[in-house]
Amino acid sequence: MSIIRRNNATFPSLMNEFFKPDWFGGLENYAATLPAVNIKESEMGFELELAIPGKKKEDFNIEVDNDVLTVSMETKSEDETSKENYTRREFSYTSFKRSFTLPETVDNEKIKASYENGILTFKLPKKEDALPKPKRLIEIGK
Fold first, then answer.
1. What does the CA dihedral 60, 61, 64, 68 come to, rounded to 10 degrees?
2. pTM of the model
3. Which residue ranges form the domains of the chain, and what is each CATH number?
4. Which of 71, 94, 100, 128 has the greatest number of beta carbons closer than 10 A?
């Protein structure tokens, strides 16, 4: 419930109460969230992890376009319960879309993705010219 402050008093917003996702009080079914993300950088590249439990790898759509990595997912389900005088049908719809602008140092052609134990992981290797160069000795000339 959102709160509006007026003259140092606190009042619940009637508009927010009226326009709840479910006027039967089923606010617990309303969850518009994005998956949590971890990003790690190493000398060789980046690793991107998204926490998305309970899905199959076929549920995801992953694409790279103009140095932007986009991950999206959409799942739908329907559940019907019938008892004596009533029938109850529940529809479930889950989706998200998240985009990441890739650094110029990432080699887009070598990106790899895997999904295991609810974690969608991306390996984003750096381009050869962005990798650390080995030390070299410089001789002093005349």
1. -70
2. 0.63
3. 26-128 (2.60.40.790)
4. 71
CB 36 within 8 A of CB 48: no
**Measured on CA atoms in the order 49, 55, 58, 63, is the torsion positive or negative?**
negative
Which one is predicted more confidently, 98 or 5?
98
Largest pairwise CA distance in the chain = 101
Tens digits of residue pLDDT in 1-52: 444 444 444 444 444 444 444 444 444 444 457 889 999 999 999 999 999 9
Residue 102 reports pLDDT greater than 80: yes
Amino acid at 80: E
pLDDT band at 130 (very low <50, low <70, confident <90, very high): confident
DSSP code string of the chain: --EEEETTEEEE-HHHHHT-S-TTS-GGG-------EEEEE-SSEEEEEEE-TT--GGGEEEEEETTEEEEEEEEEEEEEEEETTEEEEEEEEEEEEEEEEPPTTB-GGG-EEEEETTEEEEEEEBPGGGSPPPP-------
- Ramachandran region, residue 137 (left: φ > 0; alpha: ψ -120 to 50; beta: rest): beta
